[in-house]
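Q: Got a minute? One more chain.
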Amino acid sequence: MPKANYKPEAMVVNSIAPAAVAMRLSTNLSTVYWNLVLVEGIAKYSATATILKSAAVVLWLTANPPATATIGTADYLTFTDDAGRYAITIPTGKDVTMRVYS
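A: Always. Here it is, folded:
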């Protein structure tokens, strides 16, 4: 049974700049440009390098989410596959905090 106060270690990405991204996706569907970045990776437990299958990958668009931040208050949510892979598209120019719940 999981502990009620369990919180995974957060990984902070400071303000992803469009120029720093290998591929920038800009499209003009209206009068406003969308600048997006694809965040992808393999979720692993750092202590043992165990691949986390079917884990929730949660992102908040802030470097300091509140202590009460939960999966329900996240800005973005995706899941890992059987190989621990995940990918999610988020806007550039924002600080991002990512946590993986397994």
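A: The radius of gyration is 15 Å.
Q: Perfect, thanks.
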